[in-house]
Amino acid sequence: MKIVKYSLFCLALNVSLFNVFSNAVFASASGPDAYRTGAPDDAGTCNASGCHDTYATDSGDAEFSISGPSEYTPGKTIKLKVAFSSSSGSKRGFEMTAIDANGNRVGKFKKIGNTTQVIPVDDYRGLDKADKDKYIEHTYKGTNKKNWKVKWTAPSDATDPITFYAAGIDADGKGSEADDYVYTTTMEISAK
């Protein structure tokens, strides 16, 4: 009887440890913690948080960018593209937000397809309710892409210019946080 109890205890311990470690390893693959765009008042990037910190930010050979229109109409939706070029990694990801000239997070992001997601509030990523729809990132499926398209609905009133901040990971795909490059980029836009 003691052997059966001991075996069940070991099995339960192994399952628990597997769940803890698998969630830690795959959390960033399905999206990083909130507030990792490199924007003012954010928590830096995944490099600054002690995760992907083997190399200095923006030190790799890839190019990371945000592209879209140079102007927006208040209350209307535009499409943006976040992209890597010259990427040597096998997996990639990003997180993005928009901030007006007064330092307010503005507008609302919306995903296109299944390679991006708006960060939900009150989950493991730690997004505050006040920032609902203000952050967008890759999904697990999106780590196989080099670029992502998203929608952003402009606020009806904001102080121009609005700056989009994004941080991206160009990862080696080995499942660890080592030997991955972190990049940052911005794009400014003003009302028509």
What does this structure look like?
The protein is mainly beta. The protein has one domain (31-191): Reeler domain (Immunoglobulin-like, Sandwich), CATH 2.60.40.4060. The protein is built from one helix and ten strands. It has one helix at 2-26; strands spanning 63-67, 71-72, 77-85, 91-99, 108-111, 116-118, 135-138, 147-153, 162-171, 181-191. The strands form two sheets. The chain has a six-stranded mixed β-sheet with strand order 2-10-9-4-7-6, with no helix packed on it. The chain has a four-stranded antiparallel β-sheet with strand order 1-3-8-5, with no helix packed on it. The radius of gyration is 19 Å and the shape is globular.
List keywords for this structure.
1 helix, globular, Immunoglobulin-like, six-stranded mixed β-sheet, mainly beta, 33% strand, four-stranded antiparallel β-sheet, 192 residues, single chain
Short description:
The chain is mostly beta strands. The chain has one helix at 2-26; strands at residues 63-67, 71-72, 77-85, 91-99, 108-111, 116-118, 135-138, 147-153, 162-171, 181-191. It has one domain (31-191): Immunoglobulin-like.
